[in-house]
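Crash report, auto-generated. Payload:
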Amino acid sequence: MSDSNTEATICRKSIVVPVTTEIIKGALRSAQAEMERLLQRTAMSPVIREKQDYFCGLFDRDGRLLIGTKLPILGNILAPVLERFPIADMRDGDVYWYNDPYLSEGGVSHTPDQVFVSPIFVDGALVGFTHSWAHFLDIGGTRSGSTTPDATEIFHEGILVPPVRLYREGVLNEDLFRTFARNSRFPDIVVGDVRAMIASVELGRRRMIEIFSRFGIGPAHLAFDILIDQTRNFARKRMREIFRSGTYKFAELIDTDGHGTGPIAIRMVMTAAQDRLVLDATGTDDQTRGPINFLMHPSAVQMIFGIHMISGHPEFMFNEGLLTLVDEVRLRKGSILQPCFPASLGQRSVTLARVMSACVGLINVAKPERPQASSSAYSANKLRGTWPVTHTPFLKTLAVAAGQGARHDSDGPDAIYFLSQQNYPVEFAEQNYPLIIRCYAINRDSGGPGRWRGGCGVIREFEMRSETASVSLRMSNVEWPAYGVEGGLCGRSGRFTLNPGRPDERILPSLQDGVILRTGDVLRIAMPGGGGVGHPFDREPEQVLRDVTAGFVSMESALEEYGVVIEPETETIDLVATLDHRSVKRWPTKLFHRRHYFDPRSWWDEADAATRNEALPSVT
Amino acid sequence: MNRTISIAVDTGGTFTDITLVDRETGILCKAKVPSTPDDPSVGFITGVRTILAQAGLTPDSISHFFHGTTVATNTILEMNGAACALLTTAGFRHVLEIGRHDIPRDGNIHSWVKPERPVPANRIYEIEGRLDFEGKQIAPLSEDTVRRAVADIRRRGIPVIAVSYLHAYVSAVHEQRTREIIAEEYPRALVSLSSDVLPVFREFERSMATLLNGYVMPKVSRYVTSLEERIAGEGADGRLLIMKSNGGVTGAGSIRRLPIHTALSGPAAGAVGASLIGRLTGENRLISFDVGGTSADICLIDGNIPTVTTEGSVGNWPLALPMVDIHTIGAGGGSIARVENGSLLVGPGSAGALPGPACYGHGGTDPTVTDAHVVLGHLPPRLLNGTMTLDVDAAARAIERAVARPLGIGLHEAARGILDIANNAMIGAIRVVSVERGYDPAEFVLAPFGGAGPLHGGFLTRLLGMKAAMVPPEAGVLSSLGLLWSDLKSDFSQTCILKTNSLDLSLLDKAFQSLDTQARNWLETEGVPDSDRDILWFVSMRYAHQGFELLVPWPVKEVSDATLTAAIGNFHSAHHQLYTFSQPEMPVELVLARATAVGRFAKPALRTLKITGAASDAITGSQQVYSNGDWLSCPVYDRDRLGAGATFSGPAIIEQLDATTYVLPGQRASVDCYGILCVSEES
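Recovered output after restart:
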């Protein structure tokens, strides 16, 4: 014992602060990676293990985030627990838990997301916290899968768990756990998932204790301070470079709430004064009856800017330093970003995606020299039915990828769902569910044309093989596609089609539950793409030809939108005709594009007109 | 006459290492020649000539040539493989472009760019015809679409055709018929079928493996043929055996058909070499640690066998074939240290062989990990009786300029910082293969080798609380030695899904019988006598609802309720080992069956060292080393003069031709009868 203490002291003495800090940075990153790997590999619900809808993180003793997620879904994870359970009453081996969006003020933003938090003690003193977070398959509610476009109150969306203590000094509160599991349609899976979540926070706890015993509590906290400062200083500097003194406005539109309201506008005004950034979103439209309300913790919007500011700089930690980039975030109670209890929240990702797009829009208005186009949101659907012979129920998440917006120096990635979340392989889906997938391909021409092309969405088309199933549908950017920037065109819309090409073909609504599929019915999910950046006539003709032969761009679009003349027989470019066409047909542009070009002012007015239903979008 | 002499050739980035052994007498020779990246077969044959001359033997006395190659690895990493076409099921042309529709977990959504696929979508052809997940035909193969596609591929002059249809892992009928049609329409085309390469579900990963197999096929085939010709040209008729990623060797014929199996050939040889240390010392739990100029390869060895994974990757691509589970990081002797935004960073950039570290005096000015060792005294300025000198001042200047001054700290603190950060990256990598797989490094011995491994061994074992570091006498050429100790090995896998509600053991029996036959046929082809054969059965299992499988041994070669129960027991323990808990009440599903065929070679006898006098007899000089703020006097030992039984305390430096070992103050070193240097904490 004394030997290893001496050893630790020797190690500490010989290490200088910048070195320790770098080593602790590596240790925090590998702790998070280990926790997440354990969770993913052992969880039961396909949402976690195949789709990878989970994250883990670590906090210091003051509740500051040391390493967090790159998904801005989360608010302050820890505060809701600390409000209910004073630190003085916490013990080693405790695990706290919640999923209640309202009591956590957006700590989680819809009910299937479960948060587990464990305090970390060294020699009886609290030194930090560890957490795991994951989306559970089903926790009760109106329909299987817990979230449904039908929901109009949070009570339709499954059991609510306020901040509670699941473990006291390592002892499970069995009654609480049984009550929760009893509320799920798939209790076995829920039990397995909770085990995986607990194993993961436990692992994080051990790793943090190792860091403290290797470096000492004082030096470790000094390193935490430095890591947070490094991130904050860099990200704040970048924010100030973008938002010079002035006022910047941007509005973004959400298609519908699925219950007759839409479009709905998110309105953001960023005011940059000498030393102060204020983001005012109080002009955002009212909350809706349908479940697209996004109970947004102010830290979520900080995260959105933070991810953007440190993009391209993996040396900076994703930590507390990103949570204070904007000095004040103003939200309005009763708006779609701050709905009143008990508004339903299950489809809040629809709104989150547009909030992200609005933040990128503000950056485009403030600093158009590094343009970035808007991304379309992924489509998350649920298929529910029973197996032909056994009549046992099944629930399959249908997660379909969209196209990302182009950047100032690269095309938008094609076929992306979201960060780190993976698809169900076709062969896995067919082994495990009664369906045949007929097509899984790039949705040609869905990416917005531009000097840099917007990413294309995908098409996934399947045929039902069980007797009767019902599907819930959710797709965004159907009415209001992802905008293009600096001459780049907007992405194309997506749509759901039932039985395409058959006499009973039908376009389905983009946000609705309870659509019945019978044996032999075919559902085609064609996904929207991201916006483009820069005038499409400035794209290299060779790149356009490549896109044509690879099935990303049609011949018609190549000519009409990119101005590239391709000889169809030989698949070669007629360069003379191309240059000619481009010089004659080149059109003038403005900063934003969504079906037409807009300057920032007319863009803002357009959103007002749209929400007053003065300008109905033309459906293409 | 029964020949007993084998030569092993391991091609690395800078050097080609050659070892010769007489399996009966244990006589061992080793040599190094420069690698010839433009045509590695030149370096190969130069090495063979060199070692034959050294041993005074003729080419016809050699029974086997073992070889570890980086041809396939480099082809994939440098993206310069053959033009390939891919035939895929109609409706799935973009299987590679879509991939798993994700941005990697450590990527940033605003800046991540999708890596370019090895084959653009305009060389992917959709073929009508469809099977379901049980192999039943939904739509017949449209031979017309195959013929049209092949005609177009031929017209475009694309030499390789990969074929990967949905559910081909359960039935290969459509793929095999496609191969027949290709043979009729375009007989010169090289063909890679997914049902041959990786008959396992998950279409993106299977398609990628099949495609990469085709992608490396022309180069690897040409290379293997050229090796055979050069060997024959020397007047030798010994058999050429190539190391595969799974840690076993196989004949040239198998490699021509499935060249992708050599994707990790070189590193696998290193892991097998390290396992030899375990066999000799009885320490059968090792972590092999191979550090070169630019990277470190790390692998966990439990029970003398390097762990194997089917979730590895090469470059940007997943490769779901069985591969030795090697974790590679960009931290080696040449890794460059720099200060960015107040942080001291080391690697992944490397000074490489040229200009190399500043201390080499070849014009390098960036400080490297090697320079830090020089400044701290771990590497004496005059190595090996002056055959090589290091420029201490150049190393100091580089560290002073790029690290010490920007951070406002002293030179030696800066050097120590560089070393600490490199060590920390190495610790992280060791944790990935141990802790993340459920193993405690404290129960393992570290096997450091490669040019730079033995300099770090003592630091890492101390920081991780490992039992000891065991430095083999052949630290610089261990990979080639590993080749000589390898066995013939091939894995045959098949998806076989048994759910708890339909546990039809006859399906599994059928799968195993088929796999066993394939395994036996392969052993027959490789000419392995009955007495040297082993066929082992494995299954992949998971809990119902889980998405990842664990490979566990099937107890005996017989399918029954009892053997199933035993296999399930193996699964519960493996799950507990890996993930800290098991769920005995949860139903278990079986996903895949595998037969591993092994053909054993006689293991070479190893010569032992004589017990000689005191360790102090091997001291050639002394050197000042910097440790915790003090300068200590440190003796320098000549490894070749240390006899069995020699023991001494740190600080100590042990020199040999191709590596230097540093023993820390407070550590003790001893030499065993095989010349293995064991470094552990002074008790």
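Post-recovery validation: Residues 84-204 of chain B form one domain.
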